[in-house]
Amino acid sequence: MAQISLTFPDGNKRDFPRGVTPAAVAAAIAPSLGKAAISASVDGKHFDLAWPIQADAKIAIHTMKDDAQALELIRHDFAHVMARAVQKLWPDVKVTIGPVVENGWYYDFDRAEPFSPEDLGAIEKEMKAIIAARDPVKTEVWDRARAIAHYVAKDEPFKVELIEAIPGDEPLRMYWHGHWQDLCRGPHLQHTGQLPADAFKLMSVAGAYWRGDHRNKQLQRIYGVAFKNRDDLKAYLTMLEEAAKRDHRKLGREMELFHLQEEAPGMVFWHPNGWTIWRTLEDYMRRRLRSAGYKEIKTPQVVDRVLWERSGHWEAYRENMFIVEVDEEGAKEKRINALKPMNCPCHVQVYNQGLKSYRDLPLRLAEFGSCHRYESSGSMHGLMRVRGFTQDDAHIFATVDQLEQECVGFLALLSSVYRDLGFDKFDIKLSTRPDVRVGSDAVWDKAESALAKAIEKAGYPYQINPGDGAFYGPKLDFKLTDAIGREWQCGTFQADFNLPDRLGAEYVGEDGMKHQPVMLHRAILGSFERFIGILIENYAGKLPFWLAPRQVVVASIVSDADDYVNEIVARLRGLGLRAEADTLNEKINYKVREHSVGKVPVLLAIGMQEVAGRTVSVRRLGETRTETMALDEAVSALAANATPPDLAA
Ligand SMILES: [Zn+2]
Ligand SMILES: [Zn+2]
Q: What is the CATH number of the domain that holds 74?
């Protein structure tokens, strides 16, 4: 019999008969591995234990300890088991597709009546019975005609349509979970008993169109989540609960920060409190940028299409741009403009004014640039995904030789800003040259190694994503981790060899000749809107004192204290604190509750005792006890507390 050679992760090679299955390979290595095996990677492809291997390959055997593979299989098997449970409970329901998604899976069903929450409970129960039965998972390869005939006979029209839409006439793979069969590419686990019966949950039912097309029939999509064990599921559900409590849309209402409305989808109406956060953050960023050697500029919102044609955006990005047409006086045709979707081309216009020499480089131009991009209505989400946003944008014009130093400077600035804003942990991803690109290999070599060296110098770990760079240059992406473990991609640092060329940016070098600068696109927050959303959720609304929109409310207990209340407010405001008086005729407990919902960090309660002693009764957000302090002492402590981190000694 013909032999094939399999190479293991440790580099060892071993011969097996052609057509050997990963199950047999695992058992041949060690009986214990044979038992623990759940799947394999064969030349990087995720393989079912039952699939024959036909040629020499690299192989790695997976067990439940390999999170990525184990979770993929568990979630995928759950999709099948759920569909089987649904058809057991309602045999007339038609099945369609059921892929694995983040944290779980979904399956789309055709059923006249909507699934109710009680139905989900019944399905879960049935799924547990299937798991308890430890039904074997089997697979066979069928030719198309047999598969189509099978599904016609079973009256599963969606499956017939699916098969007919698969191009070519390759045979199809079928899977059985016990008696229940589905058309599926696999791979799968070996029996239903491998599924953790206490680590899954059906989450919701939503409408979904067959094949995602609204002209097609509407189906019902049941979402489920699954993990390796009960603790992981519990942690996930707790995180969801915590995230719901922290939802910036809910807190945005309670703290009176902003609102959105139909007449301006995806564009934020900032209220005084929200705008105060914005301005405080903007002032902070402006100071940081200024001391890092950036120069701030402001460029137009509405720009003629001609510039977008030159920059390439008109061709590549047109469907995301808001178009503004205008009747210019005396002109025969309307002038067509676009609201800028990004600031880069405008920054090159500023750079291009006047001849630049190598002595002008690096030139760091910053703009809190308002941009507009069309996003589909379904993809928008509070402040997190909007159509109108403001970037903390800047472009550095530099020579290739200055790249490393600029990257070092940027990393220092970014890490310090993140730390100041409460994010100590962030990940860096370096994306390198894609197949289709501009610029010479020599320049790419230099740029990639400059970025890598800069990160290494700064002492951060990073991950390389080969081939994931933009066509115009390599880039770094920065993802920060929030208080409940969610990751948010915010910062970016991208080298660009293309735009300076397209828009004619040049400098005169030491050699007296004209050269092209590299353009570095960089942002730390990303957009103010989204970053403020992240801050609100990270802190559950309890922003650091210096960022809180209303820092202190001075509340009277009796109206005779009003004069003293107003005196205190005036004094705090005189020191730059954001203080308000609450002299409404309400009980103090009511005032405490109201301002704690509004997430005011400090409430000073003032009764006649405080008036008499020139003291204040200090109550901090989230604490039930109060502390009596002399007024002078309280005022200076609050003022010290309000100093932004970059200005604190
Ligand atoms: Zn499957
Ligand atoms: Zn840019």
A: 3.30.980.10
